[in-house]
Design goal:
By secondary structure, the chain is mainly alpha-helical. It has two domains: 12-44; 49-271, MetI-like (MetI-like fold). It contains ten helices and no strands. Helix 3 packs antiparallel against helix 9.
């Protein structure tokens, strides 16, 4: 039997029964809400075949998948990779012992965390992307998401590094390691495991925020969706399909990241068990 939680009392039989009733009521209410929404859409004629025809037509499906979904994933992946590098550099910079490094890093991170992503996209587009071809809009979205998410990840990296027990760095310094070695060899590998849930969350945010690229004519799902609903006047079906695409991709991304996290935790436990076994073997010898 598992040990009771120290944070709250274990619920008794009556509390368990109440929770089950609350769960059933919530599920019924949710089903009723979805049913009412579908009924309203049916009454308004939003399930007419003419409105859904583009989403069963091969040419439009190809446009949604290739020019829409694939471009969205490419922009999100590029932005996330660059944001991780940006966040690592400025997060470590905020921990520098040198004020000439620490304060500029602090100013950059706080500035880009405060500026809304949409405003940042417009600013970068009219100062950089508008003078270029289609790639200008693409890189406007990537750079904007890199700066915003990188600034958020900088705080995540800083907090993750500071969450590593101080004894780890003290032991490394005791054996003669320099600060750079302590940071790259000891602190960061342990901090990444602590930061992984926050990094996963930020990846999902970056993927969803690619939809804002519509305002600067960037390729992606929202751009293709806008072209479809302008032609067929089917805003609601288009919104439903685009939302479903984002939900599926985000679920897959979360599943993949969770799998990676479990693998990392599993490897850590195996190393700990191996270390204990080696100590036992040494003691018996």
């Amino acid at each position: 039997m598992s040990a009771p939680s120290v944070l709250f009392d274990a619920p008794g039989p009556r509390a368990v029964a109440r929770h089950r009733v609350y769960t059933v009521v919530a599920v019924v209410a949710l089903v009723a809400l979805v049913g009412w929404a579908c009924w309203r859409l049916y009454e308004e004629g939003q399930f007419a075949y003419d409105l859904w025809e583009p989403f069963v037509t091969p040419a439009y499906i190809e446009a949604l998948l290739v020019n829409g979904l694939l471009k969205t994933i490419q922009m999100a992946a590029s932005a996330v990779l660059l944001a991780v590098v940006f966040g690592l550099v400025f997060g470590v910079g905020k921990l520098s012992d040198h004020a000439v490094v620490r304060w500029p890093c602090w100013a950059v991170v706080e500035f880009f965390r405060a500026v809304p992503v949409l405003l940042l996209m417009i600013l970068i587009f009219f100062s950089y992307g508008i003078t270029r071809d289609e790639s200008g809009s693409y890189w406007t979205v990537v750079i904007s998401l890199m700066l915003y998410n990188g600034a958020v990840l900088a705080e995540v990296f800083r907090a993750g590094i500071q969450a590593v027990p101080s004894g780890q760095s003290e032991a490394a310094y005791a054996i003669g390691m320099r600060k750079t070695q302590v940071m790259t060899i000891v602190m960061l590998p342990q901090a990444v495991k602590i930061m992984l849930p926050a990094i996963i969350s930020q990846m999902v945010v970056a993927l969803k925020d690619t939809s804002l690229g519509y305002v600067v004519a960037a390729p992606g799902l929202t751009y293709v969706g806008a072209s479809i609903y302008r032609q067929f006047q089917n805003q609601v079906p288009t919104a439903i399909v685009l939302a479903a695409c984002y939900i599926v991709v985000n679920l897959l991304l979360t599943w993949l990241a969770t799998w990676v996290q479990k693998r990392l935790v599993g490897e850590k436990k195996q190393l700990e068990v191996s270390a204990v076994g080696n100590l036992d073997a040494g003691g018996k010898a």
